[in-house]
């Protein structure tokens, strides 16, 4: 079956009730037929039996199974949030004395873990510039264990050649982890290009309607086994309710991502050259500095675009205040179009220099393009720009 069909037809085994839609397994624990069965379940960690929903649950398993199929992964684990997925990876594969190399253009909370928490636990980090991947090899040391990237990055939409990075990681025996949140497996499958692990904030396009939080990590079986034990014992597990919602959402992922991308490309093209803007950035615009790489590894440009207002930081605030119906919120990947102004909100605590280093200019607006009619979205933006 093709991925579009697998996203819809992958389902856990039907119960005796012969339900059509997968039921929700809202249960904390599972029962046994005998004391011997119960003892056996606890004796062997690798036994395929449900014990307790912090360890495993059928609704969570269905969600993991679908993401594995869509990403081309051997196995996976699910977490309560995207940040739980990121931190579980760091804590599982890094120990005191180890070193991680990461792109500097990463989501704000990932930046906080790298710069504030890892050093506290004796783990070193080095940043490289997404636009200078040649820098990576110069940063590798004998204790480098993990290489971490987001592509496209949040919010700068920087793109890196996954094959290039994966070859460096293989040569130096480094675990290559990709945050694929902006693209989703409907647009980009980093494992095909050599990633060892792929993670998501499922809160975004995977949910697609801004309802629940969730995270997932998929990849090589031997790595997932270690992650599974970490999550099972430390507890950042995904709730069955959220997993059920997310698994249902995957049924529409492919059609949604196509429409998000179609709307985003249309709006990006229409806004390019607008007199109030310095530039418009979108992976599938020919003006994107990594347009060719984006075309090689992405099926479309995804649902996020950015533009820079000539009017700077004040202009950003004014733009948001001039919106009539478009949502002003910090989430993304929703059916409803969302505008955010990182410099005055999510990244306001950083200095201008720090913001510049991760591609956040004063007038940068991030648009998560929704599924409304593209001309309605465009009119709303143009009206706000004219004010
Ligand atoms: C690229 C990226 N990774 C990770 C996260 C964290 O996800 P969550 O909010 O589900 O913890 C986000 C959230 O915006 C994100 O954009």
How would you describe this structure to a colleague?
The protein is α/β, with parallel strands linked by helices and 387 residues long. The protein has two domains: 3-250, Type I PLP-dependent aspartate aminotransferase-like (Major domain) (Aspartate Aminotransferase, domain 2); 254-386, Aspartate Aminotransferase, domain 1 (Alpha-Beta Complex), CATH 3.90.1150. It is 38% helix and 15% strand. It is built from 14 helices and twelve strands. It has helices at residues 3-9, 35-43, 58-71, 82-93, 108-117, 135-139, 162-172, 221-234, 240-250, 253-271, 291-297, 312-321, 352-357, 374-386, and strands at 75-79, 99-103, 124-128, 144-150, 175-179, 197-201, 215-219, 277-281, 304-309, 327-328, 338-340, 364-368. It has a seven-stranded mixed beta sheet, with helices on both faces. α7 links the parallel β4 and β5. α3 runs parallel beside α9, α4 (82-93) crosses α8 and α10 packs parallel to α14. The longest helix has 19 residues, at 253-271. The radius of gyration is 21 Å and the shape is globular. It starts with a helix and ends with a helix. The mean pLDDT is 96.
